Hints:
By secondary structure, this protein is of the alpha/beta class. It has helices spanning 6-15, 34-42, 47-57, 70-76, 80-86, 154-168, 197-212, 214-219, 238-244, 259-265, 268-278, 303-312, 333-336, 353-363, 371-380, 386-399, 407-416, and strands at 62-68, 89-95, 103-109, 112-126, 132-141, 144-151, 175-177, 225-232, 253-257, 281-285, 319-325, 344-348, 368-369, 404-405.
Amino acid sequence: MPTSSPAAHQRRLARRGRMEAPSMPAPAGSEMSGALRARIAIHNVGEFDQRLIRDWVGQATQAQQLSLGGAVATCMLPVIPRFIAEGDLELHGQIGEKQAPPRFTTIKLAGTNFDVPAEVQFFLEDRVTNERFVLQVEDYHDGDYRISVHGRSTTSKLDELREYANCHNPLRGQTFDLRGKVLNLDAAETRQVILTPEQSTAIDRHILGFATRFDQLKTRRARLSRGVLLEGVPGCGKSLLLRTLPHRLPGFSACLATPEQIARHGSLETLQQLIEMTAPCAVFLEEIDLFGSDRNLGGGPSMAELMQMMDGLRHIPGVLWIATTNRPETVEAALADRPGRFDRRIAFGPLDMETRTRLITELIKPQEIESEALQQFVQNSDGWTGAQVRELCETLRLLSDGEVFTSAELDEALADCDFYGLGTFGFRQG
Length: 430
């Protein structure tokens, strides 16, 4: 039976979450020759390199590993070169993995390029303690990574890297999804969100107010987490509101997640790690009623798991939960009606006359509408949602080449649309 190489054996053990302690004695002397450093820098991974690693870190080697999902890796990996350059660390050399030279990739986040280690072992020495250790990065599965630290005090080094990444990761202060993709939301959509006075007061107080007064709340020993549930029929502006809020939360990162994303791209554990690394962070959960629903995605996290995660993050200062639901009756009462998880519920529904008037006036821009036609529009749209009002405005633009819409044009647009209260709408057939 063929004997596997030490490198292969090490990788198998790593995948099991453990590492063998070295049995070889440490080399004599405390300094490496220039020739040996050169060999470290250029030599590919093999039996010699595995022995060299064990010799480098000494006889009493410990190992600690950290597995990173794709989005979490986006937080951690880009800061490693900076962590080495700015810390009390001396880089003696580096080698690659899998019989190849060290491999780096370049990613672009929020307009900045980052050199990200993909398959690299860094040979490092702490200038303060003179401790030698190896920092290893492995790309082991479809965008997932493993970081390993080999040395005598591995826990402290990994904790230092984590703390540094929490402060300097490129997702901090950005708006992103569960894949770690930075989202460039359209701030112009803000003008299309027309709220009732009651909705505006609640959002100003419990969402925007929490973010803008966060530092003050900390000094007053207030509870540093908040949850708001936006509920109502489809098309009433909940999702649109979500996409306008990140621009208005100074000092907060923003993570937009759906149950579908969680099922496809990670888990609640990934979301939890992202929150911990980017807090203060606003977490936007669309259609929270779908948690626990299959949706042909092989299942996903349940509401009970979501509640456990929310409770587990109470020690993180600055977590703002904002969720939407079209079916509030399906959301567990322990989640929706329990202060400490979701503290406020804000209702969205058909627009009243004043709100419809404001919304129509805003949506029709840069065109205008005759006063008589505007009055007719408002009267005929009683019981409509914001999405229905928006669609009639777009129909007017399709039917007219004028800059000022008339009552006759509005009649034609109304005849073209099939809106009846809150029922399903579409276009007339035939």
